[in-house]
């Protein structure tokens, strides 16, 4: 990846005056590189999570409009967006985050638990090889990639409980060469780590995350409190609109527009919330992060 993608972006002057929120520090955005897939064939025709209702109407056209605006939002913020060609018969291929984890140019692919999504993994594997990636490993264990893996800059937080096998955590550590911390999810609504937690700052010595405690087991909550004592804590309303399915560049934080409480909390920490409408794709249990795989290195 070009070094310019790691360079800080221009930061607007902080808001001042009596109405300004108190902030703890200046936040510096960095350029990112993302992989996305247009929801050209998006629909809800099966049920693999509690959000999916095949009996409810779905507009593919509206999903494409929302996805396009999300892509433009990243580009307006100065990020580079790559795309993969969607495939007929794979309505959830839009959720690119589930098909690969990329750290320092190494790629660990995906192996889906649901048969309906299994073919997606091969299309993404081919994309990586066609775009110059040479270290591409397909997992032996069930592994839904960035759906259950969150990179803090020093640790890979790894979710399990509904989709990704616990054994995939050790596999990720071996393939990617980074330390892994396992976290257990206990609420089926928050079936992936990326709908219960996301990383706000992965560039500092003390990374910062936001998370919804009730999505995690008691032991995992203790781990999170120990690792991230300054974390932003989401409430029920944040979680229920998939507000934790956010994407941060270190300053600008893209969130579903309904996550107003979470937006206020992160603004107090010096971040700039960027609210987007992702309501049509949420009918399949997805949000901004689900649509976005980060290509690191």
TrEMBL record:
<feature type="region of interest" description="Disordered">
    <location>
        <begin position="1"/>
        <end position="20"/>
    </location>
</feature>
<protein>
    <submittedName>
        <fullName>N-Dimethylarginine dimethylaminohydrolase</fullName>
    </submittedName>
</protein>
């Amino acid at each position: 990846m070009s070094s310019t993608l790691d360079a800080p972006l221009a930061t607007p002057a902080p808001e001042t005056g009596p109405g300004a929120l108190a902030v703890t520090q200046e936040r510096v955005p960095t350029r990112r590189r993302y992989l996305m897939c247009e929801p050209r064939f998006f629909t809800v025709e099966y049920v693999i999570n509690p959000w999916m209702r095949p009996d409810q109407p779905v507009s593919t056209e509206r999903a494409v409009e929302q996805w396009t605006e999300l892509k433009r939002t990243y580009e307006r913020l100065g990020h580079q967006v790559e795309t993969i060609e969607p495939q007929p018969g794979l309505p959830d291929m839009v959720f690119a985050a589930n098909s690969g984890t990329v750290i320092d140019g190494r790629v660990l692919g995906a192996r889906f638990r649901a048969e309906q999504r299994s073919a997606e993994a091969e299309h993404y594997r081919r994309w990586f090889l066609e775009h110059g990636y040479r270290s591409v490993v397909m997992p032996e264990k069930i592994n839904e990639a960035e759906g259950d893996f969150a990179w803090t800059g020093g640790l890979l937080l790894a979710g399990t409980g509904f989709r990704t096998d616990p054994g995939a955590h050790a596999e990720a550590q071996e393939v990617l060469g980074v330390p892994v911390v396992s976290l257990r999810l206990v609420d089926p609504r928050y079936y992936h780590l990326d709908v219960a937690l996301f990383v706000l700052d992965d560039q500092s010595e003390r990374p910062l995350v936001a998370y919804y405690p009730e999505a995690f087991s008691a032991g995992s909550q203790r781990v999170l409190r120990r690792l991230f004592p300054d974390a932003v804590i989401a409430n029920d309303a944040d979680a229920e609109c998939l507000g934790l399915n956010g994407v941060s560049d270190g300053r600008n934080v893209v969130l579903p527009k309904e996550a107003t409480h979470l937006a206020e909390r992160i603004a107090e920490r010096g971040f700039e919330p960027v609210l987007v409408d992702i309501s049509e794709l949420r009918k399949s249990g997805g949000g901004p992060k689900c649509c976005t795989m980060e290509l690191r290195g």
